[in-house]
Amino acid sequence: MSFSATLRDVTLKYRDGDALSDVNLELEADKIYGLLGRNGAGKTSLLSLLAAFRKPTSGEVLIDGQPVWENAAIVSRVALIREGGDFDDSDTVKAAIETGQIRPGFDTAYALKLAERFELPLKKKVRELSRGKRSVLAAVCGLAARAELTMFDEVHLGMDAPTRDAFYKELLAEYMERPHTVILSTHLIDEVANYLEEVVIVDRGRILRHEELEVLQDMGATLTGPAAAVDEAAAGLEILAEQQLGGTKSVTVAAFAPGTRERAASAGLEIGPVGLQDLFIHLTDPSRNGARR
Amino acid sequence: MTALQNLTLPNRRYSLGLGIAGAALKYFKYWILAAVALAFLGPLALSLSTEIDLATWFYTGNIAKWFTAFVAGGFLYALVPNMIAAGMTRRELSVAMGVFGLLWSAALGALVFAGLLAEHAYYGAMGWSQGVKGDDAVTVLGSWGDTAAFAAVFPLLYLAYFAAGAVIGAAAYRWQNTGWLLLFPILTIVFSLDNAVYDTEPFGPAWAGVLGRFMDDWGRGLVLAGTAVVAAGLAIAARRILIDIPLRSKKA
């Protein structure tokens, strides 16, 4: 049984201001979500509330329909893996993994198998690990938690590209074998885009967008073809990104005006979905209104 | 922690407390063995140059009080982020710390109790006097009963020091820059009560025993009752600080 998550009128205040303001969010069970936002947008604060790392200043945080705060039956099956993990640095890697056994669902054999696959030195102290290996340890513990809601907050930082790729594949394999709710908070947007079903964009403490990935991608398009034809089709549209190689040009536009798609198609241009990262940059551009308070 | 294997949700708070106590005793086993060895061999070495008339285990037992406070505070400070991130509730963690405190205090108390009794036999065999230095004079623990009665209060004192350390550890985590300041009022109360139990000179910073002057006429029973009340009060305070403690943000 996988967990849904609900935030109702949630505000989280810190001493220096609001981290989240009147946030309402519904996340269905059994989906992989991408949580996107600029630095300081409130992503980590939102995840901290879902994992009961913090208590909201006001509002309700429900997991599987129940309040998450001090709810052992729920929090034992919710995992938030923060960058570098939350370990006792004086522990060995093996001891740090075994600490996960505090969760009744923790799969130690799976964790040790992953540790071997990712070449984690079990006898080394956590404090002796490189940043990348520490991130791997955190990711391994997150996967082996076998939680019903698993959240990875920038857990890939420090991992090299092959390790990140292996991690995403393992995450997907685990998800396919045991459907559950996953939230990936990341700045490497295009790298994870293929794995996401829905995207939540947080901006300045509010939910800016919560859409299925396809809906977001259909908000704009990438036009590719002869430079002159592309320029003609894109004339008057908001351009998010452009690339040119010889006579071939590719332009990402934020939104189509009526008839643009047809004109582009008749001009022989290739029309592709908009890159999530380009769209994200556009939507959270400080010069736009976005979710500004 | 082997105690964590095969746990269930309802009992994991107790399993964790048991596991932490076991892990802590295992982690510090060489320190403890060294202290035991020093407590027995120290007087033997000193006897070559001076007359032995003070119980070494009294000092060992006192050092263990400070050690207990550091263990409680240090462990709690480290466990708050680790255990909450591992899916425990704060209530469960506070129960686990309670179990840990009881077991740790009982184990160290039993060790010091046994140490003082063994020392009684040892000193007797060597012809030395097992004395405890008080405010005005040295009190000799003349009989097995005197030694047992003297040693019996150590578990309670360890519990008080453990609770004191737990409050300071929880406060230091919760209020990053100022929480540790609770050390001063807490230490003053616990330390003064401790010294009133034996009517001894403060075994530590003299200022911390400042409240002792108000306890001079209390009598041992009242002081012990006061110690028990303070230990319970500190345990409640630690739980209160812990119960809605937020996890700190990770630093980049």
From TrEMBL, chain A:
Domain of life, per lineage? Bacteria
**UniProt-recorded Gene Ontology molecular function terms:** ATP binding; ATP hydrolysis activity
Where do the ABC transporter domain residues begin and end?
5-229
Which Pfam families does the UniProt record give?
ABC_tran
Gene3D superfamilies, per database record: P-loop containing nucleotide triphosphate hydrolases
Could you tell me the keywords of this UniProt record?
ATP-binding, Nucleotide-binding
Q: Which InterPro entries match?
A: AAA+_ATPase, ABC_transporter-like_ATP-bd, P-loop_NTPase
Descriptive protein name: ABC transporter ATP-binding protein
From TrEMBL, chain B:
Provide the alphabetized UniProt keywords.
Membrane, Transmembrane, Transmembrane helix
**Record organism:** Glycomyces lechevalierae
Superkingdom, natural source: Bacteria
Regions that span the bilayer: 27-46, 66-86, 93-118, 148-173, 180-198, 218-242
> What is the protein's name according to its record?
Uncharacterized protein
